[in-house]
Protein 1
Amino acid sequence: MELVFYGHSCFKLVSESGKKILIDPWISNPVAPKSVDMGPYDYILITHAHGDHLGDVLKLARTSVTEVVAIHEVQQFLLKNGVPKVTGMNIGGTYKLGELVFTMVPAFHSSSFPDGSYGGDACGFVITLEDGTAIYHAGDTGLFYDMKLIGELYGPKIAILPIGDHYVMGPREAAKACELLSPEVVIPMHYGTFPILTGTVEEFKKALSEFGVKVEVVELKPGESYKK
Ligand code: NI
Ligand code: MN
């Protein structure tokens, strides 16, 4: 398994069997590495309709080689905009693709398309890989107590959490999220892309030790990857 950070909320995930997944496909974000994999991807997952998460999906999902997975309203938008293969789902649902499993979980955030129209609800994903390892990508979210249920039901070993503050959780909220989720590894995201996303990994680590939460913090710079 390999997770590559492309900056902001964008991650490439390669599963044990070699399936390529891109989460929140804003590969042209201001902090993206020079070299990014332009695909084709097997799957692109989208957490919500905001531009910094829809990202470059219209460019990346032009053929039916790539299946996009998103909430119903985002699915309808993408189909109308010429993306050939889009699977819509909704919060609480699980989509099984052989041994690869996508579960759509809640996120506490708004969602609208670039023109301002309603984008459905924002969500997160739990991706369960062939060997049973679960990875939770929270999308954009505030802290909510039901993260405890996500931890209990799906047992994510790896949590990818926003820490940038202002639009999403800040470092203290994200540290509490780790207490609720109990992952082995946490990878911070959605910070430092713009000046307003002020949360830092240092503050996050400080909050974790303040709350007495034991978790391995893996800080990835854009372009770096985590392998297991
Ligand atoms: Ni957002
Ligand atoms: Mn965002």
Protein 2
Amino acid sequence: MEKTRIERAIEYITKLFQGNGDGHDPSHSLRVYKNAMSIAKAEGRGEEEIIALSALLHDCDDHKLFHTENNANARRFLEQEKLSAEVIEEICKNINSVSFSKNRGKTPETIEGKIVQDADRLEAIGAVGIARCFQFGGSHGRSLENSIEHFYDKLLLISKELNTPSARKMAEKRDKLMQDFLKEWGEEMN
Ligand code: ADP
Ligand code: NI
């Protein structure tokens, strides 16, 4: 049976991120996709295929990982799929509006962009967020203490910056876990 476009996108990103150990392995993009679909369902908004492809491809041209220009990795897949120029631009625009560091304080214009941004931000908090923070820190030669600072610089601020009510609801438990973790960390350090 012929694969679906989503299955082909999953294959594409699996190859692209294979062996990446800085918090951007293939499973990160897959979880962003799954988070995004859950948020979209709960919100009852957004075009499904645009959300799915924007989520799966959201880190394909991240400047920390790839030296591409003009979303070249995402475009390669979307062009192979023979999507219209208009749809390709829309997806690239969503992808470019998602990054936290590039867009501090800015909100994506489309509901699809807002949902994917929330889905990616959920990945930085909770149990997965804690794990990714130390994985990223370790792969950049940072100490545990240094990675703990990142909680105060970014991770604890995320739940207040989410776009959709459904993602805010999903963030509550994750936030509580990080608070408990930091409390325990403080106790063990003293
Ligand atoms: P994404 O590409 O998923 O939006 P980032 O590339 O910003 O996320 O970061 C990947 C993961 O690494 C995130 O979970 C983030 O919290 C963590 N991270 C980013 N910068 C630092 C840092 N300076 N120290 C520790 N962890 C970091
Ligand atoms: Ni990401």
